[in-house]
Design goal:
The chain has helices at about 5-25, 35-55, 60-85, 105-110, 130-150, and strands at about 125, 130. It has about 150 residues and is mainly alpha-helical. The protein has a single domain, classed as Bromodomain-like (Up-down Bundle).
């Protein structure tokens, strides 16, 4: 496969995943903080793809695309782990520990809790949440970016 086609595939894949996130949001699956964090690297990868196509002589650009894809993959893996309760997520996005809180502190925690929590799975397919799918698909896109870089 040519470098141009690989870049189109990788950048288009990020754009498609970003579009998919917006479609899910349109159908009522509001994003949590970690969901939003996963979107930015996809936007960056799509932009890098446009730059790499417009400026083909700048050969390291696909490596920036790979870095963006690896970044969103890492955030997706972290988010999937938070959803599975393998580790804690950000305090501003999860239920957190409520043991030992006074009634006033507990009420304050409830009143300041986010509407969409990062530690709840809103949708899943074949046992993987959206964050898990993002982690896997973005890792595959990172491989495509590296193949595009090597095809220089």
């Amino acid at each position: 496969m040519t470098r141009t086609r690989l870049i189109l595939l990788a950048a288009g894949g990020s754009a498609a995943l970003l579009l998919g996130a917006f479609i899910f949001q349109f159908f009522g699956y509001a994003p949590c903080k970690l969901c939003l964090w996963q979107r930015w690297p996809h936007a960056a990868a799509a932009l890098v793809g446009l730059l790499a196509l417009a400026l083909p002589r700048i050969t390291p650009l696909p490596l920036l695309g790979a870095l963006a894809a690896l970044t969103t993959s890492g955030i997706g893996l972290y988010h999937a782990g938070v959803e599975q309760r393998w580790w804690e997520g950000p305090n501003t996005c999860t239920s957190g520990d409520i043991g030992g809180l006074s009634s006033g502190e507990l009420l304050d925690k409830i009143m300041n809790a986010p509407l969409i929590r990062c530690d709840e799975i809103a949708w899943q397919l074949m046992g993987l949440s959206m964050a898990g799918w993002n982690a896997l698909l973005s890792l595959a896109l990172a491989v495509v970016w590296v193949l595009a870089w090597r095809a220089r």
